[in-house]
């Protein structure tokens, strides 16, 4: 997937964000509910996304990804800061976003009553295509995504994954040069996921399409992204290629130990490991230097501890490890 990286690294900036701030106001408590404090959902965000890049926003629930995307797509006005997309000032002219980019949000309610075919056609017409061009594009996109057999079905009568794919089909019509996709593959099976990433890759290769992708799936992020901004509490805590980010924690490996019932704390080597372990039920997760990890593995697989051990895995760092080492909290990052 990363063939466009070099081109993207040196390419023209299509989206430049500076010092973006958005605070949701505090809410007074009503009917016995406690008041909610103000939330600074975007807290001084700077970003440069380049042409042809698949750029990710990764972060746990509540990190501010959707708020940032709503501002980038002209749906929400920031309190401060600037957004320039393809040379247009979107803070001054948020209405221009709709003709510059295609946005696939998390909700599909606007299209739910339409058939798959009509959802794609209607989106194409709204984007200014004539009837003949829309029909040609519809046939091509539905065929490309394996949706032709579902063309006559209303979206509300599709499964969650199929509906998501149909909404993705609608996002593709009209050949926008920037695609903003908020968790596009949620609920999709592997075949549909592959169809989405193949369609994205084709447009990037053939037309230099730029993709801004919101995800909290670290595996998908590592596979498809050229660069990723890691968001935590409204701030970007790191921004690099997935491998660049991972090299920051290359000095560590991750050791997962799963005990049959409980850890044998009477074994001194196990008791000693506990201080550096994160415990989750029967699982201990440790981040260790490679030689420490080797010593730990031989301690738990060699002696009395082995009888209490159900499973163990030794893995090189993932984006999740980077995120943790940057001070993030694991909650909300999806690993499967
Ligand atoms: N309309 C709103 N009013 C008040 N606070 C809000 C509102 N929308 C979001 N927030 C808060 O702003 C913060 C950022 O929310 P946002 O939805 O942008 O996060 P997110 O990273 O997209 O999360 P998720 O992965 O769950 O979609 C959270 O603390 C959230 O509770």
From TrEMBL:
Annotated membrane topology: Peripheral membrane protein
Record flagged with keyword Transmembrane: no
CDD domains: ABC_subfamily_A
Keywords, alphabetical: Antibiotic resistance, ATP-binding, Nucleotide-binding, Transport
A Pfam family reported for this protein in Swiss-Prot or TrEMBL: ABC_tran
Any one Gene Ontology molecular-function term assigned to this protein's record: ATP binding
Localization terms from the record: Cell membrane
The keyword Kinase is annotated on this UniProt entry: no
ABC transporter domain location: 21-258
Matching PANTHER family: ABC TRANSPORTER ATP-BINDING PROTEIN, DOXORUBICIN RESISTANCE ATP-BINDING PROTEIN DRRA
Protein's name in the database: ABC transporter ATP-binding protein
Biological source species: Streptomyces evansiae
């Amino acid at each position: 997937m990363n063939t466009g990286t070099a081109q993207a690294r040196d390419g023209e900036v299509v989206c430049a964000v500076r010092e973006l701030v958005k605070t949701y106001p505090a809410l007074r408590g009503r009917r016995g509910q406690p008041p909610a404090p103000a939330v600074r959902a975007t807290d001084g965000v700077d970003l440069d996304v380049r042409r042809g890049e698949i750029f990710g926003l990764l972060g746990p629930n509540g990190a501010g990804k959707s708020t940032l995307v709503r501002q980038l797509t002209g749906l929400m006005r920031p309190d401060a800061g600037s957004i320039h997309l393809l040379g247009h000032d979107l803070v001054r002219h948020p209405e221009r976003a709709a003709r510059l980019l295609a946005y696939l949000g998390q909700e599909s309610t606007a299209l739910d009553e339409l058939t798959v075919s009509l959802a794609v056609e209607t989106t194409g017409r709204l984007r200014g295509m004539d009837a003949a061009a829309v029909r040609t594009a519809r046939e091509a996109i539905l065929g490309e995504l394996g949706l032709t057999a579902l063309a006559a079905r209303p979206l509300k009568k599709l499964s969650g994954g199929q509906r998501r794919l149909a909404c993705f089909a609608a996002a593709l019509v009209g050949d926008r040069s920037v695609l903003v996709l908020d968790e596009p593959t949620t609920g999709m099976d592997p075949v549909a996921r592959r169809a989405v990433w193949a369609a994205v890759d084709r447009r990037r290769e053939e037309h230099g399409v730029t993709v801004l992708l919101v995800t909290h799936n670290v595996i998908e992020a590592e596979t498809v992204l050229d660069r990723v901004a890691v968001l935590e509490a409204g701030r970007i805590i790191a921004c690099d290629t997935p491998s660049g980010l991972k090299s920051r924690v290359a000095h560590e490996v991750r050791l997962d130990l799963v005990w049959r019932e409980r850890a044998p704390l009477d074994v001194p080597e196990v008791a000693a490991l506990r201080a550096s372990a994160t415990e989750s039920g029967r699982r201990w997760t440790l981040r260790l230097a490679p030689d420490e990890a080797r010593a730990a593995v031989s301690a738990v697989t060699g002696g009395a501890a082995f009888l209490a051990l159900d499973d163990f895995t030794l893995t090189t760092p993932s984006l999740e490890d980077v995120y943790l080492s940057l001070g993030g909290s694991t909650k909300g990052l999806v690993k499967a």
